[in-house]
């Protein structure tokens, strides 16, 4: 039932337990991901109320709904970033996208929407890595097609509203070299094949391109990889917002950082966005099934149809619905609302009137409301994307200093 990122390689599937790595996300018996277990296994920490309160105090604004609702739920050293920030130190943000398809769905936008909020709230610079090389190596794509997709995806990312005076977007094919490459080889030299096998599940059958890639994703965690942005700022801390399946890359990065004399990047990690309905025998979302997700290219009518067909936890007959209340854990329209509806009090009202016994709300109401909310988001995104010109893409991707990046 959980949606994986669009990778097609299946490694590390040896156990019957849940599998979460950058290439595969699948729950035990097609059920739900056990996030507590994942936190234990990975060794990250739960993002608790006290940290969220601290974000509110330090930024002087309401924490983003993805924090209030637990979409971003785990971290590594986020408390240290906040300590440093409190004492007047600054940091930079690093996130990325593997450009494997033209059409992004709402789940793909979540990390970018959240990163935009972090950039605004903390007034910090941001680097965004487009891993066209990664997708070339893992998917059946040519170099040229991966490059094209990177630029197309850059438009969607820019449409999320990033500030061009504080944001550098780069593709690996363009940017690997110089100081960036020096950090890559330093990282590579610290990681044995055995270690990489342990972290990523690589086997003797995998081509060596795959083995070389984790160092590419690690390099942007170090400010010295960007001499045009952070000259003489080798101690600048890095905070990485990402989905939790990216954790293995950064576990490796954090492991090698002290040996290179660098600080470990901090992480703030999200759960996965659920698919609209169970499709396929194990209930896992299929990336190729257009009905399993809302795409930013969907029309209002598409959204309405998809939501109407989405898996509901409500009861078919209003007497049952009234007596029992909906099973919100199984209700996809409600889950989508709880991620994207801005207003906490409206969400609470729906939770009560729809989910509790004797409630008066029917599935139809919830579906109608979530359709409105998602249609608005998708239409806003479409307008914003249409306004992104080639010149804007060039501007975000130009190698240049960002003089007012901390203002
Ligand atoms: N590997 C990621 C993907 O396929 C892309 C990525 C690169 C990334 N660097 C990152 C994601 C940093 C989050 C944070 O989507």
From TrEMBL:
InterPro entries: aa-tRNA-synth_I_CS, aa-tRNA-synth_Ic, Rossmann-like_a/b/a_fold, Trp-tRNA-ligase
Keyword Nucleotide-binding: yes
Keyword Ligase belongs to the record: yes
EC number: 6.1.1.2
Segments crossing the lipid bilayer: none
A Gene Ontology term for the protein's cellular component: cytoplasm
GO terms of biological process kind: post-embryonic development; reproductive structure development; tryptophanyl-tRNA aminoacylation
Record's catalysed reaction(s): tRNA(Trp) + L-tryptophan + ATP = L-tryptophyl-tRNA(Trp) + AMP + diphosphate + H(+)
Similarity field: Belongs to the class-I aminoacyl-tRNA synthetase family.
Identification of the protein by name: Tryptophan--tRNA ligase, cytoplasmic
């Amino acid at each position: 039932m959980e949606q994986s990122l669009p990778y097609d390689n299946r490694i590390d599937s040896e156990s019957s337990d849940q599998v979460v790595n950058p290439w595969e996300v699948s729950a035990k018996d097609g059920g739900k991901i056990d996030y507590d277990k994942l936190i234990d296994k990975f060794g990250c920490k739960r993002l608790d109320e006290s940290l969220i309160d601290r974000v509110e105090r330090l930024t002087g604004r309401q924490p983003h709904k993805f924090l209030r609702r637990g979409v971003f739920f785990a971290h590594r050293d986020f408390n240290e970033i906040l300590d440093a920030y409190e004492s007047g130190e600054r940091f930079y943000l690093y996130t990325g996208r593997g450009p494997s398809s033209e059409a992004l769905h709402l789940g793909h936008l979540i990390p970018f929407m959240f990163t935009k909020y972090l950039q605004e709230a903390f007034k910090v610079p941001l680097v965004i890595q487009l891993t066209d090389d990664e997708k070339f190596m893992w998917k059946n794509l040519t170099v040229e097609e991966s490059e094209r997709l990177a630029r197309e995806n850059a438009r969607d990312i820019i449409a999320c509203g990033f500030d061009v005076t504080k944001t550098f977007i780069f593709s690996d094919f363009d940017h690997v070299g110089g100081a960036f490459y020096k950090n890559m080889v330093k990282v590579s030299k610290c990681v044995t094949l055995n270690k990489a096998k342990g972290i990523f599940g690589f086997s003797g059958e995998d081509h060596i391109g795959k083995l070389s890639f984790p160092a590419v994703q690690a390099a942007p965690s170090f400010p010295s990889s960007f001499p045009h942005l952070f000259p003489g700022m080798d101690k600048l801390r890095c905070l990485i917002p990402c989905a939790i399946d990216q954790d293995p890359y950064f576990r490796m990065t954090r492991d090698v950082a002290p040996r290179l004399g660098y600080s470990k990047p901090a992480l703030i990690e999200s759960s996965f966005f659920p698919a609209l309905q169970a499709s396929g025998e194990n209930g896992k979302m299929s990336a190729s099934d257009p009905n399993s997700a809302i795409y930013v290219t969907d029309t209002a009518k598409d959204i309405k149809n998809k939501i109407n067909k989405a898996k509901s936890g409500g009861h078919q007959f209003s007497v049952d619905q009234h007596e029992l209340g909906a099973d919100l854990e199984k209700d996809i329209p409600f889950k989508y609302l709880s991620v994207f509806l801005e207003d906490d009090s409206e969400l609470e009202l729906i939770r009560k009137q729809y989910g509790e016994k004797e409630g008066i709300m029917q599935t139809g109401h919830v579906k109608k409301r979530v359709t409105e909310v998602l249609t608005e988001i998708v239409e806003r995104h479409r307008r914003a994307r249409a306004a992104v010109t080639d010149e804007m893409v060039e501007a975000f991707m130009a190698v240049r200093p960002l003089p007012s990046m901390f203002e």
